[in-house]
Amino acid sequence: MARSNLRIYREPVESTPSFYTADEANQQTVTVELGEVLPLLADAVASQRTWLSDFENDSITISADLYEVLLAYQYYRHPAA
Question: Of 26, 24, 42, 44, nearest to 34 (Cα)?
């Protein structure tokens, strides 16, 4: 029987801590274009990834015009009862 050459992966050593206090976590933000995030989120939702539930109660900041478009979309996509 052939012997497999499996190796143990050890994560790279980081110079920054892998945990943050609440204040540190709030200060760490990244600004990205919506076009970068949407395909990933859409795929995660379609694939029913469980990690999405970890972020259900997180707040996000969006522009006022996007918010208005989303409200209109929400209103018009529901069929009249």
Answer: 42
pLDDT by position in tens, the chain (length 81): 566 677 777 777 665 555 556 665 566 778 889 999 999 999 999 999 999 999 999 998 999 999 999 999 999 987 765
Task: Specify whether the CB–CB gap between 45 and 52 falls below 8 A.
Answer: yes
Measuring CA to CA, how many Å separate 4 from each of 7, 10, 11, 21, 26? 9, 19, 22, 42, 45
Cβ atoms of 52 and 44 closer than 8 Å: yes
Q: How far is residue 9's CA from residue 63's CA, in Å, rounded to a whole number?
A: 41
Tokens coding 38:
């949407």
Q: Alpha carbon 74 to chain centroid distance?
A: 21
